[in-house]
Protein 1
Amino acid sequence: MLKVNYYYFFFIVFTASLSLSTTRGETHLVGDDEGWTQFPNFTYWAKGKSFHVGDTLVFSYAQELHNVVQVNGTSYEDCIMEPNLGVLQSGNDSITVAEVGQLWYICGVEDHCKNGQKLTIEVLP
Ligand SMILES: *[C@@H]1O[C@H](CO)[C@@H](O)[C@H](O)[C@H]1NC(C)=O
Ligand SMILES: *[C@@H]1O[C@H](CO)[C@@H](O)[C@H](O)[C@H]1NC(C)=O
Ligand SMILES: *[C@@H]1O[C@H](CO)[C@@H](O)[C@H](O)[C@H]1NC(C)=O
Ligand SMILES: [Cu+2]
């Protein structure tokens, strides 16, 4: 009986630490309260923040006004939609970053990207 309780105890500890490690990533609300809109400076927003594998980016915006297009570095600089690595358009998009490296997001609507609606982050281990 004692032995059974022992195993049960370790099972609880193990499950608890497992769920801790899977919820450890931070959530970053892109643009804070202003959200994903045209005029915040997202370079400024990202400055001084650190992004790690397992963190979640939340893009919050009016669905009929914006979208989120993942592009590469060249397309980010030039504000072009191709090559397009994925488009999100729910208005409340969560992206959990899975890999180390640079990520680039632009808004693909009209000239929003040229107006500054673009974000690049470096994901650390
Ligand atoms: C946005 O913020 C960055 C970092 O602070 C700064 O270097 C850049 O000049 C700003 N861009 C604009 C358009 O204000
Ligand atoms: C982005 O993709 C285009 C088309 O595949 C390619 O020509 C360009 O070199 C890429 N840029 C970067 C920085 O990877
Ligand atoms: C947006 O999504 C996040 C994460 O999925 C959720 O926690 C939040 O409640 C959602 N917000 C709205 C306004 O739907
Ligand atoms: Cu937009």
Protein 2
Amino acid sequence: MAVKYPVSRPWLAGQELAYVTETINDGWISSQGPYVRRFEEEFARYNGIAHGVACSSGTTALTLALRALGVGPGDEVVVPEFTMIATAWAVTYTGATPVFVDCGDDLNIDVSRIEEKITSRTKVIMPVHIYGRRCDMDAVMNLAYEYNLRVVEDSAEAHGVRPVADIACYSLFANKIITSGEGGICLTDDPRLAEQMAHLRAMAFTKDHSFLHKKLAYNFRMTSMQAAVALAQTERLDEILAARREIEKRYDAGLADIPQITLMPARDVLWMYDLRAERREELREFLAAEGIETRLFFKPMSRQPGYFDPRWPSLNASRFSEDGFYLPTYTGLTEDDQAYIVGRVRAFYEAN
Ligand SMILES: *Cc1c(COP(=O)(O)O)cnc(C)c1O
């Protein structure tokens, strides 16, 4: 059956079209157009942070953050075992080495196990707010203070969670809480870090000569067309988060009494509705046949070919990745849609 309920669908019902139309009419479509600055200011203001640096993706946001903090070859960065691979790749792109820490029961990095991974080479701790659950940032910031480390927050799945790290990085990919199609943004209170990220984002042009470049930089710029969409989405972020909160409540209520389903801890903001299920693969196939798309949990980093570790240190991450998945989670999902989806999950276990 065709997909009737995709896992994700953007909600572009605000000023998105009007703003994009304006960029087209004015001809200011590149990164030099006015919407990039407007989006940066609005997103930073929303989060109570001084500076925003928009860029081409969440992955490039993380890369810019690490480069601005001076991370490079020989350095180590502590990252979660359970995350999307871009968190680890950003470290690898800089020439540094990611050091993985297993997750706790909330899927976030187990902060009690970070300290044992800190060495003289460690420069940065990079926690991720997985599926919209805020990581214990007090614990991370205390460790960073004690060991003189910097902190980059991977907030790709947690727009609306208040940032506290040196730099917080967001993705604006189409399946994230807010989107610009493709895109990302870094937030920081430090004007020098903001300036450095903006410099690295745009090919490190210098004042001395139009085409003198003193360091290896990137073209990670966001276009004004993307920023136009991102700004319109930011204006509605509270509304989007509130709608997502209702989706979470309805799934929780509908699924709670199914014995083969294990609900996950509450979320600070809802990105994807994650859960664990007995006979997950059969259930997913059954749901797919009913037009309900689902997606597996992340595959742990130590199981990825690029980071394969035969010691297999990530016991929790592996346990969760074996029976975890997520259900369709987007703001257009109605009560009826959710009742149907929950009903099909129930029907699977009643029939099998
Ligand atoms: C989506 C995501 C990214 C990457 O963002 P892109 O915009 O796709 O590059 C990084 N980290 C996490 C945790 C993500 O979920």
